[in-house]
Sequence to fold (890 residues):
Amino acid sequence: MSANGDTGKDEEMDGLLSRSLCSETIKEVLAGSTDIVYREIRIKNRADPAMNIVFVNGMVNQEVLNKSVIDPLFKYISLSECTALSQVYDLCAGGAIGIADIKETTNTRDAVDGLLSGNTLLLFDKLKRGIILNTIGFEKRAVAESTEEGTYRSGKDAFVETFRTNTATLRKKIKNPNLCIEEMAAGKQSNTRIGLIYMKNICNNDFVDKIRKRIQTIDQDRIMSLRDLGLSIVSEKYTPFPVFITTEKADTCCISILEGKVAVLVDEIPYAIVLPGVFGDMLQSPSDYGYNFLSSSLFRMLQYACFFISVVLPGFFISITTYHPDMIPYKLAISIAGSRMGTPFSVSVETVIMSLAFFTLIQASIQISRTIGGTISIVGGLILGEAAIQAGLVSPAVIVVVAAASICSLAIPNKEGSATVLLFQGLCTAFSIVLGLLGTAFSLLVILFILAKLEPLGVPYLSPYFAAEKIHLEDSFIRFPRPMSKWRPAFLHPKNKRRMS
Amino acid sequence: MKKTAPLILILSAVMLCQGCSFPQKYKIEETQNILIFGVDSKGDEMQVTIVVDSIKESASAGEEQVTYKAYTMTGQTVFEISRNLHALTDKRISYYHLKYVIIGEEAARKGITECLNFILEDHEPVFTHRLLITRGITAKEFIEQASPQSSSLADYLDSLSNDLKNTGKSSEVRVIDYAIAMKRPWISLYIPVVEPDTSSVVQAGNSQNSQSVNVKLEGYAIFNGDRLAGFMDGDTAMGANFIINELHGACITVQDIKGQSASIEVIDSRAKIIPDFSDPLSATIKVSVKANLVDYNIYADISEEEFLRCLEQQGRDNILNKIEKAIVLAQQNDADMLGVGEAFHHKDPIKWQSIESGWPAIFGGMVFFVEVTLEIKGTYYFGAVEEER
Fold:
């Protein structure tokens, strides 16, 4: 962590960007990023490299680059006749290159900004000057809207299968030279390309080192899935809670990277994992930032409430109707009792049957194609709801409770978290059937025990609620107004702790 | 193993804490809830009347059919009767939703300890059940006469209890208050009184929901120890409520400066008992009342200060009169239901020890000074109406 980490600026990077423009400076500025391509160009009849072409792989239109930049440099006769490098520069700036949109510069910062936006840099090291050529053009595999994660007033672009397109998408969103995209390979046979993406000036080096080291030591033939990769990186291999965020949204990824987390991209997988994940990540959505801080805080609290309700509600209902009817207000008690008249099963059996039916419905809707997904909803809704009540198999109260708990579980933004909630809902229900409210309380204790034990990459999973350092709640179950959210999460130990000066 | 050991320990602890056995299950639909528990004395025996609900299968979703039945049984003790009552009902009866414990006058005169022991000691009833005493009638007769045909008597009593906040002629007393009074013998218990109100008989007509006899819930039954010592009527009970800080709203009617009737509504009342240990023992009761002028002669010009001062003076006198009547009645019965003994006890617990044993008699002969202040805060006055118009 830098000593001046609290100033909100990166003096080292500023120093580099204020140096004179040349290819060495650019290399130093973008050190560590393997998606930057450097190419020396030698003009005919000249022994020394006359110029360097620099561009970001995946962000330029290769065809335009070859035909309008590379070809003219070798074929333009006048260039070979130049005796001085300044003549070459003048010719290039004056029309030897077939690009309409060019810009001369001697400023390293302008050059880097242009480069990271997808332009090609033509650098004349000896002259300390450069030309920015507009060759912007990404891979044309359509970047579609996320299908699994909802969006509201936030970026809709999701990751695609092309690794380079994904890195370019992140570059597009974070036009900062501190964004580092490291590449490495994992999988003894598959040699799968894996990218580590983080902010050099924000992210704690410990995270990067740990992740890099663990990826390098992966002893598998191939990377089967992101979950395999994630579990290879963290120590908590058996926990049901998501200890890393899996997202297909570039927005979510960028927000996390800028907080000081590390994103991992895998070639051919249209998702990224973000490490380390904490409990709150499961219940937050990038859409939260699209709302006013008050609305956003309300929605966040609702997400937490949904988590709690989803886990506890069926078990709690069984407990109070079976063991503690004195806890139910009288009017509600007779309403529940009235609705249960004539049903053959106990509340416990009904709840278990309905919960299992719901889980099955979810599984069915995941497995089947979208075209018949609607059919499943209708059949499920009819059979589980209307028909079951009319047949007198279950009481309406149980349907309401299971449906409410299920809707709450689906309201959790993180789908893996949603599945985890269902798992613990089952646990809580089982304990409640046997022990009543004691069982409900015990299952909550077990959940708390598991949560408190988790420390992905050394970060307490219940951060920022239980932290050794000062607890920052600016962006937790409530969201403070932007001017008050000055600090990055302390539990990530970022190099640069301030979001804003 | 290190991780699982704490889990096993917690699980074992949970299992052991609840008595090495699984909790008892009840089916909510196979339970009848006792809503009212009436206790009477019948010769040497006790008589218990319960009102239970009976839920039938609903014709359509969300529409349960609830009817209410009353069962009566006699026995040597309340516990014995409550166990035998199970045989009368077709489902398990439960005290979880019991709302009112009504004690007949005769049983109360013999002592309410015998009536309430079971309620205090059994695990199902809780201490928040409301206590009522019938006057001139047994609890059984009251339940039979006052029960509406299809709705719940408990709901009807709830409604009457809520109205007490406006009338100030009684208050809610719960089983916990009885338990406290039994632990602190210098406190005399008071319990609200219910009786059929024969003065306002409602025509049953065609409506199934109307009841044949109205119920009057006002006044207190005053206890000396656990025995009923006497009754306090509604107005006197209001005076007592001023002292015990149980008055949340009341209407006081006085005469204005021109002799016309005017009503003031009490919106806030605070009382403080200041004990004095000097011989003879005395206590000063300071009552501060805030009120609104609600109903008065519309032709009166209340912007005249004299008009309001006159009303305040008369209101003060009215309240003072009620308070003095309450004190006199309590002293006549040697029943310190006003919390005077508590005030002495709190002021000097050491000196209190010397008078504690003979407190009822001391209370009966004590000197009281009462100071009442009344302030009319609001008048809803929009200007006097000219009489010619």
In short: Chain A touches chain B through 32 residues (CB under 8 Å). The two ends of chain A are 17 Å apart (CA to CA). The longest strand of chain A covers residues 179-186.
